[in-house]
Amino acid sequence: MPYKSRVASVYLLGFFIDLVNMFMASVAFPEIGQSLHACVGTVAWVANAYTLGLTLVIPASAWLAGRYGDKAIFVASLGIFSLAATGAGFAGSIEALIAWRLLQGLGGGLLIPVGQAMTYRLYPQAERARLSVIVMACALLAPALSPLLGGVIVDGLGWHWVFWLNIPLALFALVLAVLWLQPGERSASDRPDVIGIGLVSLSLALLLTGLSRFERAGDPAMGAALVVGGLAAGLLLLRHVRRSKHPVLDFRVLRDPLLRAAMLVYLFVPGVFTGVSLLNMFFLQNALGLRAVDAGALMIPYALAAAAGMALAGRLFKRIGPRALLLPATIVHATGIALLATVGGPGDSQRMLAAFLLMGAGGGICSSVAQTLALLNVAPAWMHRASAVWNLNRQLSFCLGVALASLLLGQLLIQHHLTGLAGARGSAALTLVFHLCFLVASLCSLVPLFVIWRLDDGHRRLLAKPSTSR
């Protein structure tokens, strides 16, 4: 096997492990909450801690790889990931589980950027399109199979094994990395913006913690204080970015209208769906009484529809432009979420299937177009800066989607005098609460329409015009 193929294999395996870990755990959330006596907002931190870990370490990945070498960082990342997966499975409290997930995110956050960089350097421009197709196939295969596999594991072995299953895969990838990867050259590079990374971390941590506090009755003052603190840290970050020579984030790239539009679409379509996905696992298992494996199986039609939507967007983007794709896709996605509000019992399988197909098709088109649109009009000299802002927005979309969905669910449970999901299992009141959550999420996912509509006035001109951030 050629060396570049071996490097690509190691990278793709690490990429697949990272995605499987992210999607498989969500199926276990209802059982985790019941086993560790945690509310929805606290359980949501099992997902958010992992995503937060990814977000914190990505800005330093290039500097770490340059200083210590690609192989050393990739192997260390897999080692940290495996250790954290072991600890997560043995966690005896929700606090310990969240801490292990944060560490797992810090390890997993280096797999994708470091692996991607060392792989794409070996492939000439003409071969990268084929490599991207394989990467996209992994990105679609993981969310399709992970929830179903996770459901089988949760029903048969318990939630602990959802984390332990990652260990043999990660160790296998680690052995391949040790045997196949060359040390690589170390390069001198500017030190990472430690102050900027710290302010980003502080802002996100305070905001997410504050939002989770609002879910609990009688704790709004602390939640408000934390949110205000997070916003203040964000303002300090903006001030620091203006003064720093090499800021972790350069917000001047937001002068590009296409990047701004793509970020908004990602916040309100994939971001909202991430929150809906969390709600769905509790809705299907706690309100409707489905088994974890049945709940996870619904992600298969979603993934198939998303793949079809991405393929359609790829074929039509240059021909009809972003507006003609995003307008109907956003509405289709919102319709799928709203359709969940009509599901009243486990017998409504056709409606559930239709909802996941619509969410997959609409979400697949929106994700693909947003990804293409984001960096389309950015000059090469600004690409790494725009990419950093875009990737932060992606992670922020997932974090906020989960945090706001759990906040909404918690507040509605309080208003309907439901003390928790376990005690209200199968009740009509609990089903109503979830229906209201889905309707609110559906309306939120329509927010980008106002910006998408404006793309029509000159989207072809925008696609051809030099970016203001050049």
UniProtKB/TrEMBL annotation:
What is the topology of this protein in the membrane according to its UniProt annotation? Answer: Multi-pass membrane protein
Record's keyword annotation contains Transmembrane? yes
InterPro entries, A to Z? MFS (IPR011701), MFS_dom (IPR020846), MFS_trans_sf (IPR036259)
The protein's superkingdom reads Bacteria
Q: Where are the transmembrane segments?
A: 45-65, 72-92, 98-119, 131-149, 161-182, 194-214, 220-238, 258-283, 295-313, 325-346, 352-376, 396-414, 426-453
Which PROSITE patterns does the record associate with it? Answer: MFS
Q: Where in the cell is it found?
A: Membrane
Q: Name one GO cellular component term.
A: membrane
Q: Specify the Major facilitator superfamily (MFS) profile domain's residue ranges.
A: 7-460
User: Which coarse location class describes where this protein primarily resides?
Assistant: membrane
Keyword list, A-Z: Membrane, Transmembrane, Transmembrane helix, Transport
Q: Indicate whether Transmembrane appears among the record's keywords.
A: yes
One GO MF annotation is: transmembrane transporter activity
Task: Indicate the secretion signal residues.
Answer: none
Q: Which Pfam families match?
A: MFS_1 (PF07690)
Q: What is this protein called?
A: Major facilitator transporter
Taxonomic source organism: Cupriavidus basilensis OR16
